[in-house]
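Structure, all two chains, one model.
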Amino acid sequence: MSAMGGDMDMSKMMEMLASQRTDIKTAIKKMLKKVDAVTIHYIEDCLNCGICAPSCPFYRAGPEFSPVNKAEQVRKIYRKEMTIIGKLLGSLANAWEPKDDADMKKLMDLAYACTNCGHCYYTCTVGIHSGTMVGLLKTMLTAAGYVPTILNLFEAIEVNNMHMKIPGLAKLWTDAIAEAQKKYGEVEFDKRGADVFFMGWLTDAFMMREGFISTIGILNKLKELGISWTMWKEPLGVRAPISVVIGRGENAAQVVSKIAKYIDELKPKYVVLMDGGFPYPTFRFTMYGTIVKALGKKPEWKIIHITELLAELLRAGKIKFKKTNDPITWHDPCQMGRHARVFEAPRDLLKAASVGYRDLPHNREMNYCCGGGGGIGCMLKEVRLAMSQVVGQEIRISPEEEEFERRVEERHKVAVRRKMEDIAKVKPKLIATACPACVETINRGIKWFGEELGIADAKAIHISEYLVDKLEVAKH
Amino acid sequence: MNVGGWGSPNDIFNFAVYYLLVPSIFIFSAGATYRIVKLIVNTKLPRAQKGHNGWGEMLKGLIMTFLRPIIFSAKTKPDDFIAGILLLHLVGVIPVLFLLGQHISWWSYYFPAYKALWIFNVPESITTSVLTVTSNVMPASDMSFTFVNTIWGPLVVILNGDLMSLFILIAIGYKCAVRLTETLMKHNHSPARYGDYIAYLLLFLIVFFGYAAARHWPSDSVVVYRNVLGLHVLFAELLLMYIPFSKYWHFVFGYWYGKLHEWYDNDIKRGEMEVEL
């Protein structure tokens, strides 16, 4: 048995992943199959005005990383494959398609310089979501085997439901649960008919450990209001569905369907997430149709974020918070903010808990992305080495991929710095947020730039961590 | 195709007005139909767990959907805002095309209800604009329309065909120069598309010949005037045919579809959930 656990070791896993590759032509066809009316608009109606450019966190790393330039790669392929003029005139009609390894590697650099933060969608003059276009690009790249090893590996772990079979990963979950129970009381697992099902991910337990434990603490306190809750003893995903990050839709559908059926068996009223990253809009919007299809009906449960639940209870006067004067701010995770438009709930809670709450200069729709989403925050050398320790086996990559990893990190730093400069204008001590990538990235940014920008003593935390001890349940 | 059965293509004006108009409308319509049908055929209606948004929020969202890129552009790329949005669109193509006196006449000929917009008409030249401010001369004859006494008042010093045409020409020149420089220096933040230059060139020619015709340039000869005006109309018809196959589609459909879709997607579909516990 390998250190990773089960009968699967790293080399076998990598072999299995490599076997899923197709040739470039087939990968292109797979990408173009996803084109629908809305993506036709995204492809055909771009004015090339470039107004979107300054919204992108990676634009500062070079003009080639502007949203319109990245999305243009899909447009070029579409013109070559789907238009008569593109087939006839080729590059004269700005039609092109990747032919070899070198072309695909160039596209990798562009695809992994996008966090799908959605800022360019809001600033586009004609409403084009370039992140969706980059998602299409990733579909093609991944299908042809061009995918960062660490993301590919964790996707395979999740799709094959192996995460709890890897001792290092399983321990992170069980230890966090044990600590939560020790601190905040018993947790009832897999209970049918509870009001709330807490859909906590493995990443919540190790990337936002205190937030995870605090969320359990909050839910246990809410029992005093007669709100019953439950969670899974073992999570059905690392951070499901990871597959969407690399554009492998069929695997994402498989994982989401499995989770939906599991939840439906338990019949909760609400499915509560503490993760405000991509799982939230994925379950509520982009893959809601998959849930309906898997269940054969519209689910009777609603997907909400922990802040939506608490904000509603606050508005109804059922809970309140001990007031402090902490200089705290809220960083809108792009997925929960721009992609789901949950803007006010977390702010209402933080304002109720601290008179020192201040918004960042760029907030809500115009919030600056931290630069760590879209898998980018996981593709750094330090993360790969840390994850190697967790899984108990070195996650090896080729020298060429190491070079790619270095370039990703270089651009990531540029993107992170923009966020840090925005935070430095407010100089909070605490930056509350709700996405593990944001927590990790902002804390990394403080490590990198905190001293220089005068925010070395600031810290990013999950909002639950801040609220748990201040939460008071109204006595009736 | 000889519309109305009179005239012959003995000059560019006759050719453009009486022969090319119907074919250009036909090609435009066929192209537009193709593009809209393609969207309809590929439409999917994704399911979602919709947010709970009030009417006020949705209305604010609609307004901001249109305003946000303009504000963002003014803050982050002021040169692009001035050239692309302000000069080219807001005080350029849009008022010239829809509100210039000659164009209101043209629109009213085909769509009589358009006459209602005469009150907003902008005069042709800076000279007539100055008269509006200094003398506010009413037409001496018993005309059905007054040409310079419009709602704009002294603003016609800016809002006149002459100046707005120059705004458009300057904006096109600026956009092309920036794009060319960026491309040559391999520092372009938006892709170098050849189609953009065709689009700019067509618009430049339309505006240039329109301006020249209005000024009876290069000579007072009727023959020259008819050919220059004919070129203005001819290039406008070429642009009309080019619209469904180019970025100009935004003007007819793409912009409106895109913004309304964005509004639906962000301000109607998404949003916080209603929780009842």
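Chain B has ten helices and no strands.
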